[in-house]
Amino acid sequence: MNSNINIGGMMANRAYLSPELECFVDQGDRYTFRQANQRVNQLAHYLKAKSIYPGDRVAILGKNRNQYVTALFAIAKADAITVPLNWRLHPAEIEYILNNSGAACLIYDEEFAPVVDQIRSQTGAREFICIGGQGKDISFEEALAESPADEPLFVSGGDDTAIIMYTSGTTGRPKGAMLTHSNLFFVTAGHCHTISWKYKDRFLSIAPLFHIGGLAPMMTNIHCGVTTVFLADFDPVMVWDLVEKERITLMMTVPVMTAAMLRVPGLDKKDLSSLEHIVCGGSIVPEQIFIEYKKMGIEVENVLGLTEYSGALTFWTHDMGWDKHTSVGKPVFHGDVKIVDPETRKELPSGEIGEICVMGPQVFKGYWNNPEATAAVLANGCYYSGDLGIKDTDGFIYIVDRLKDMVISGGENIYPAELEAVIIQHPGIADVAVVGKADQKWGEIPVAFVVKSPESDLNEDDVIGICRDRLAKFKSLKEVVFLDSLPRNGVGKLMKHVLRERLN
User: What is the pLDDT of residue 336?
Assistant: First the structure.
């Protein structure tokens, strides 16, 4: 066993403790923890042999596959830093991240070879490894085959950076959040202690690994001794097939995935009895989602996760009481949350709206090569999230909105999330986003972008009436725009800046 807090050591320790427990299931490939750790070691040795030095950045452009996770832990054992790449980005955006991070090596899925060929000459990467391919670059399996499987010597850990995870860049160029080995150890420990992970669970990996909502749960599986079953492309029919075939007990989703899974016909004819929990985050979880899954004997648990917090910050489970289901729960183990005045950063009393400030060993190190952005959000060990929230007298956290999303109309503060929560309850509405539009009289007015449910005949007046009947007059919608779908990123989060640009 290795006592160094290095995420590569996490894999080595689990292989020592549970060598014959199944670690990865990926279509026809199955690996025990012992076998998976040996493959990690082989790739780590290969990277070292190719002059990947301590602190070098190694990027991964790939879908949810066992090779992705193997690479992540191998990079750590090579004392290098992983840079996950969102494969949904434009090639120019991928090129920017590669150059901004100074990546020395790129590991990529064969299906992204055309993208890699398009940008390789514009990057400083000197090594390329192709997963599943036999092209101009060495294949992943060839790299493993020519390398030994013994444990490599690694010296990084603790406060050294393990992963640079780039944010979505809604206010400009993406920023690289530096997550340390200690950050990731404590966030996975927090998941093990306070959310629904337990030894010998079987976890279905469908949330993208380029996002903290996919990566942190997968790392928790290694920490806790959980089998990971991979699904490279989200397909709600295939999700349920794998739940039945592989006896899945746990998964992590976003609400759009969870809703799509409910629409699969014939679920009553499947044996889904193994599935106990679905951890859901990324946006508001509609009440009906909780109810419908509960009828199936499956508990949906709500979490708030932040890249800069290395994973889940708060969690709600049914055991905490249905009266709290509209909250995002309480802080995970090792973490803490306080609500502060956005201007003075002084803590506010229970029940008052303020900025969510988070503390604990999970708080990230800062933004890569961006001290100004780091200084704006980090102070005295606290991360100022830019999210507005409330803490009730029982310590439960409620999300109000993004600080920058707040609409100020006629001097009144309007929180789009409040309007969205009311509108989405209507059965004729499938999706909604509310943003502010510049207005000469009021300064700003709230505008709703709505996706109607199939066969719904709602019109603009109907949607405006939904809010008028349940909210104060000053919060009333002024306009409604109907769309076929809302712009969302790779993990289902609304891209409100796209909607604002359309209006303003």
Answer: 94
Rg (CA), the chain: 23
Question: Backbone phi, then psi, for 458, in 5-degree steps?
Answer: -60, 145
Domain with CATH 3.40.50.12780 in the chain: 1-405
Where are the alpha helices (H) located in 173-211, listed in sequence order? Answer: 181-194
CATH of domain 407-503: 3.30.300.30
| Element spanning 113, H or E | helix 113-119
Q: Which fold has domain 1-405?
A: Rossmann fold (3.40.50)
CB contact at 8 A, 262 and 240: no
Q: Where are the alpha helices (DSSP H) in 247-307?
A: 255-262, 287-295
Give me the helices (H) in 120-232, please.
140-145, 181-194, 212-224
Q: How far is CA 18 from CA 12, 13, 33, 226, in A?
A: 10, 9, 7, 10
Q: Spell out a b/e string for 81-111, using b for 16 or more CB atoms within 10 Å of the CB, else e.
A: bbbbbbbebeeebbbbbbebbbbbbbbbbbe
> Which residue, 138, 140, 16, 29, is CA-closest to 8?
16
How far, in Å, CA of 11 to CA of 4, rounded?
12
As a whole number of angstroms, the distance between CA 230 and CA 245 comes to 13
Ranges in the chain annotated CATH 3.30.300.30 = 407-503
How long is the chain? Answer: 504
| pLDDT at residue 1, as a whole number | 44
| Positions in the chain short of pLDDT 70 | 1-4, 168-172, 490-491
Return the closest-CA partner of residue 212 out of 110, 303, 330, 333. 303
pTM (2 d.p.): 0.86
